[in-house]
Amino acid sequence: MTATTPPVIAPQKQMTGMLGHPVAENPIDRMFDAVYAHHGLHWQFWKNDVANEADLALAVRALRPLGYRGMAVTVPWKVAVMPLLDEVDDDVRAIGAANYITIRDGRLTGHNNDGKGVVKAIAKVAPLKGQRVVMLGAGGAGRAMAVELAWAGAAQMTLVTRREEQGREVAERVRAASGVPCVWQRWDSPVRLPAGTTMLMNATHLGCAPHLEPVPVDWSTVDRGCLAVDVITNPRITPFLEAARAHGCPIVDGVEMLVQLAMQIFEQWTGVRPEEAVFQRAVAEALGERG
């Protein structure tokens, strides 16, 4: 009888991903998969477009039986996902939104590092202490960034939103969490900045590919030294950042923020501390910035 070599069976991939709507233009899957491969990890990242809250509940309930190890959460589900989880950490309780989930021992835990990512990205360009910040939008990402910027030393914050109830609720959350003065301003078109603003942040979807809508800012009210920050990740240089740069403002792009928060999530999920250069290279390739 001839002996046969048993077939080599590849280990099952460890599953991670993202829940949001829309997600098609986000480069996060290509970035994570490239970094998993670089570190020799048999992991994979799947983007999932979830269009309504009923489907969100089904998707979250399915994470355990499908064997997911972690899940990022993006707009518009960072607040709605919270009651679907087994527990949330202190940051989520303070901020009121979750942007990623760890799944260990069958338990789903919500975390939020949106603000931590943007704080690290901004700190590469300018100190945060003493900044007088105007933030456009106060959704799931915006509220996290507002709280984290206040914790990082911002002196004063103004939240500009179309929905007064949302803006005032987030402003109160910032004040309660940090003690930093935070007020709501109605969204007018164009938006006029209060005198003395030193940082302007776009925390809305405006400018995202493929639509590339301009952000309606009255640039005559913006000081030329005002730091402009965008949370949009595709394209890297949005119409908002193009206008800011043309006005003479230093800029921080959303891709840098994505890299900083993705590195933290990667380490939480895998236990591996990645090199920043690997993430920077992976996201640049995902955006077609490298030949």
Task: Write the topology of this structure.
Elements: E1 14-20, H1 28-38, E2 43-49, H2 53-66, E3 68-73, E4 87-88, H3 90-95, E5 100-104, E6 107-111, H4 114-123, E7 132-136, H5 140-151, E8 156-161, H6 164-178, E9 182-186, E10 199-202, E11 227-230, H7 239-247, E12 251-252, H8 254-270, H9 276-286
Parallel strand pairs: 1-2, 1-3, 4-6, 7-8, 7-10, 8-9, 10-11, 11-12
Antiparallel strand pairs: 3-5, 5-6
Helix pairs in contact: 1-9, 4-5, 4-8, 5-6, 8-9
Summarize this structure briefly:
The protein is of the alpha/beta class. It contains nine helices and twelve strands. α6 (164-178) links the parallel β8 (156-161) and β9 (182-186).
Description:
- This protein has 291 residues and is an alpha/beta fold.
- It has two domains: 14-112 and 261-286, Rossmann fold, CATH 3.40.50.10860; 115-252, NAD(P)-binding Rossmann-like Domain (Rossmann fold), CATH 3.40.50.
- 36% of the residues lie in helices and 20% in strands.
- It is built from nine helices and twelve strands.
- The protein has a six-stranded mixed beta sheet with strand order 2-1-3-5-6-4, with helices on both faces.
- α7 (239-247) links the parallel β11 and β12.
- The radius of gyration is 20 Å and the shape is globular.
- The mean pLDDT is 94.
